[in-house]
Amino acid sequence: MESTLGLEIIEVVEQAAIASAKWMGKGEKNTADHVAVEAMRERMNKIHMRGRIVIGEGERDEAPMLYIGEEVGICTQENASAFCNPDELVEIDIAVDPCEGTNLVAYGQNGSMAVLAISEKGGLFAAPDFYMKKLAAPPAAKGHVDINKSATENLKIISECLNRNIEELVVVVMDRPRHKELIQEIRQAGARVRLISDGDVSAAISCAFSGTNIHALMGIGAAPEGVISAAAMRCLGGHFQGQLIYDPEVVKTGLIGESREGNIERLKSMGINNPDAVYDTHELASGQTVLFAACGITPGTLMEGVRFFHGGARTQSLVISTQSQTARFVDTIHLFEQPKTIQLH
After folding, report:
1. Which of 46, 125, 132, 136 is the most exposed, fewest CB within 10 Å of its CB?
2. Could you count the other beta carbons within 10 Å of the beta carbon of residue 316?
3. Quick one: 265 and 310 in the same domain?
4. In a 3-state reduction of DSSP, which class is residue 135?
5. Domain membership flag for residue 306
6. How sure is the predictor about 82, in pLDDT bands with cuts at 50, 70 and 90?
7. Which residues contact 253 (CB under 8 A, 6 or more apart)?
8. C-alpha 344 chain-centroid distance
9. Residue 155: which H helix or E strand, with range?
10. Domain check: are 135 and 112 in the same one?
């Protein structure tokens, strides 16, 4: 699967990032999202594959959708068997977020990117558009930290695993009212907090890379993005756990349904009979082969954002694979027309 799709999924996220970046700083988050969705869909439909969206654009933001269940790829067309070989007719599950951090793009802030994860059919957890309590940590802390432990306990464990003082640790937390007590606890334990407004996929992945100065992600964010983060962290050997949050009182918004009871029934209808279950990377991304790809839209910890020059653009992408056990950073120059100059830096 990697040899067939590796380069092409990079191009999928690159095209989404370029389309969205044209709206950077213009204050129109839905437009930035819409053009990313359309660019991602158009490129995926040129790939010789039979893909199915299992995690798509959330209805929460009233955004355009690559809807759950949508089929993408040349081999989903009628009479596909005539021009697709049997291997290409194998169904692939795809989780996408064409513009992760729409507000970041709209207001010209760092950390937005186009992301997707793919695996064979059934290889990605079909998370509902709920929230998820998340814990991400470096590979050295994998299996030692636990989402059911307090932030203080987990920080002590991470400090021991990394041979660092707690005061040297940086924890990323979404800047939300629901995290007031969590932030206070992290600070009282001695660690430093980096608050972000959006884009926790990048924060989770950054935990797996030494040198990013991010040592943990804690708190509650969107569940679909949790699955995408888990796919990347499984490839990288990092620690990630997620637990679905279905009680509107916990997240302090009315965006996941009107009642706790109604949400539990919705989960049951999706085959999730234990709503309080804690999932790890191998449960959220269980496929034999998992691929993750991301391309920076605005500058971030791991990747540069899209940089336009007269006649083209330059992107930086990351593709991670369980099959080859690699994490590749890909620097690409895109030529839209005959350029007067080619920007190298």
Report:
1. 46
2. 22
3. no
4. strand
5. yes
6. confident
7. none
8. 28
9. helix 151-162
10. no
Spatial separation of the C-alpha atoms in residues 233 and 231, rounded to whole Å: 6
Which CATH number do you get for residue 106?
3.30.540.10
Cα separation, 224 vs 277, in Å, equals 16
What secondary structure letter does DSSP report for 223?
A: H
- If you search the block for the tokens 């636990």, which residue do you land on? 146
DSSP code for 35: H
How many CA atoms within 13 Å lie on the side-chain side of 95?
Answer: 34
Which pLDDT score is estimated for 344? 63
Whether residue 49 sits in one domain with residue 22: yes
User: Helix (H, G, I), strand (E, B), or coil: what is residue 203?
Assistant: helix
Burial per residue of 249-277, b for 16 or more beta-carbon CB atoms within 10 angstroms, e otherwise: eebeeeebbeeeeebbebbeeeebeebee
Instruction: Kindly report the pTM of this predicted structure.
Output: 0.91
* Among 318, 307, 316, 313, residue whose Cα is nearest residue 335: 313
- Distance between CA atoms of residues 186 and 46, nearest Å: 47
pLDDT digits (tens, 9 = 90+) for 200-239: 999 999 999 999 999 999 999 999 999 999 999 999 999 9
Q: How far apart are CA 342 and CA 345, in angstroms?
A: 9
